Amino acid sequence: MFGLLFFVAPARLQAQTAQGIVQAAVNAELAADTNDHSNWVYRDHDVQPEKDELTLTVETPEGSLKRVLLRRGKPLTADERKEENDRIANYVQDTSARAKRQKANQHDDDQAAELLRMLPSAFTWTVRNETSEFITLGYAPNPAFAPPDMQSRVMSAMAGEMVIARNGNRISTLRGTLSHDVKFGFGILGKMFEGGTFDVERREIVPGNWQITETHVHMGGHALIFKTIGEQEDEVKTEWKPSPAKTLREAEEYLRGVK
């Protein structure tokens, strides 16, 4: 019995240590999100099945604006540029539209924070590799975890790896593969297919400030009411710099000057 414990204990210790590393990273990310009031300007290349756009986003304390620069690699026509100017101006003046987006953004932020909090318990964690700068951990579904909603059911079925930067305990990479089909309502209401993947890459834009710079999601599925509940998207954000705009009107003026 003692011989068995001799071999089992190190594995348990490693699991506890790995989970502790993840918990420290989650705590660091939640604290950073609360304390970060920075605003940025960046280019965003977003490719989906029916969309291929390069946009310029300007963040402000009042929210953010973005302007389409290229569609499927081609500059906008004069008419399309006018449409963009009108769309942006109408949004800035439409208080109900701004309130609706703010509410949607807050919901997304709350949901992301909740999923982040689930990371330590939703998976079993192991340390795969360590360097002076990064720790790479592997994860797999935790059979003891009871997901509270559909989104967390999909998340908790993933297996993959996470890379954490030692400096600040910040998450640098999170990638995974759906380890099995996920059914909703015994498959009657919908199903996410095994093998779907996601990859989120984050970079330190300035010391202490980490931002998502790449997102790659390739999930397949179907639902009873909707044509698909999967997602196919590749998004890359580049050319980050501090935003000079303090209001949405200032952001509008900034975007009008972009060619």
The biggest beta sheet is recorded as: 11 strands, antiparallel
Which structural class matches the secondary elements? Answer: alpha+beta
- What is the string of helix and strand elements? HEEEEHHEEHEEEEEEEEH
Main sheet: strand order: 4-3-2-1-14-12-11-8-7-6-5
Distance, first to last CA: 74 Å
Beta percentage is 35-45%
Count the strands? 14
**How many DSSP H or I helices?**
5
Coarse shape:
globular
Helix content: 25-40%
Count of domain modules: 1
Computed over alpha carbons, the radius of gyration is: 21 Å
Low-confidence stretches are: 1-13
What does this structure look like?
This protein has 259 residues and is α+β, with helices and mostly antiparallel strands. It has one domain (2-59, 116-242). Helix content is 36%, strand content 41%. It has helices at residues 2-35, 78-93, 95-122, 150-155, 248-256; strands spanning 40-48, 51-60, 63-71, 74-75, 123-130, 134-141, 158-165, 170-178, 182-184, 190-192, 197-206, 209-219, 221-223, 231-242. It has an eleven-stranded antiparallel beta sheet. It has a three-stranded antiparallel beta sheet with strand order 9-10-13. A hairpin with a 2-residue loop joins strand 3 and strand 4 (74-75). Helix 2 (78-93) packs antiparallel against helix 5 (248-256). It is globular. The protein starts with a helix and ends with a helix. The model is unreliable at 1-13 (pLDDT under 50).
